[in-house]
Design goal:
This protein is α+β, with helices and mostly antiparallel strands. The protein has helices spanning about 10-35, 50-65, 75-80, 100-105, 180-190, 205-210, 225-235; strands at about 40, 45-50, 70-75, 90-100, 110-120, 120-130, 135-140, 140-145, 160, 170-175, 195-200, 215-220, 240, 265. A hairpin with a 5-residue loop joins strand 1 and strand 2 (about 45-50).
Length: about 270
């Protein structure tokens, strides 16, 4: 079925609309960040705060107005009830506050993630890190902008970004700050001349997309909403996300509760 709304020219517009929504959510998140907020543990033993819920309360209705009839699947809603499978057509994945542990630690490395999925692949996305003022969005291309909470989002102030080819020596790998696992560490140790840095949330994808790093491997568990927005941005910047054996990394795994397997995100490949 043809969906003119999702042709490449429209994807940049969708990415910019996602960015405007994420900016509003980021302002609400930061209002909580500057208080003595409480934390509770969800059934899966992951933390959640009032900021997660406030962000979702802004994002979901805004997406439903922007993309009427398109399913919106958000982390906090899925904590209440499993997501209904989308049999055909596009859907939106939302993590209203990715990196809640970083939010609790007050290190600034947390993000708002929004991604449009079509045909099992991310076609537009936004990642906003309000505490550090970094905003990334994508459609046909990838863009970044400085964006502080409370300021008006203007897509005209954004500039295009591109992933780089990894240098022969001194390539930079980014690893999770709060979720390291032995399999990921073993993979990183197997790559020669690699400098490993720790970064929280979906900022890892965005730093690679902006040409500031080269590799992000994750063998531990993640959910689709953790990865899709960063994948969309990195892909539009010329990078890639794949399974460890090089197969496409797809979305819409409803049978497994939208749980991901291992993946490797890379910058631009060398020309052949």
């Amino acid at each position: 079925m043809t969906r003119p709304f999702y042709k490449i020219a429209a994807r940049d517009r969708i990415g910019a609309e996602f960015a405007a929504i994420a900016t509003r959510a980021g302002e609400a998140i930061m209002a909580v960040y500057h208080t003595d907020f409480l934390t509770r543990m969800k059934a899966d033993e992951t933390p959640v705060t009032l900021a997660d819920q406030h962000a979702e309360d802004i994002i979901v209705p805004a997406l439903q107005a922007l993309l009427p009839g398109i399913a919106v699947i958000s982390e906090e809603s899925c904590d209440v009830a499993p997501p209904a499978p989308v049999a055909d057509g596009p859907f939106v994945l939302v993590d209203p506050l990715d990196g809640t542990r970083e939010f609790i630690a007050r290190n600034g490395e947390f993000t708002v993630n929004i991604a449009l999925i079509d045909g099992g692949a991310p076609v537009a996305g936004c990642v906003y890190a309000p505490a550090v003022g970094e905003l990334y969005f994508s459609g046909g291309r990838a863009w970044s902008a400085g964006q502080r909470p409370g300021s008006t989002f203007d897509p005209a102030r954004a500039g295009p970004i591109e992933a780089r080819q990894a240098p022969l020596r001194g390539a930079i790998a980014l690893a999770s700050r709060s979720h390291r696992d032995p399999a990921t560490d073993a993979f990183l140790a197997s790559v020669p001349h690699l400098q490993v840095e720790s970064v929280g949330s979906s900022l890892k994808f965005c730093r690679i997309a902006a040409g500031r790093a080269d590799l992000y491997a994750r063998f531990g568990p993640t959910m689709e909403w953790d990865v899709a927005a960063g994948h969309a941005i990195l892909q539009a910047a010329g990078g890639s996300v794949s399974t460890p054996d090089g197969a496409p990394f797809n979305y819409g795994k409803f049978a497994s509760g939208l749980r991901n397997g291992p993946f490797i995100a890379r910058g631009r490949s060398a020309p052949t």
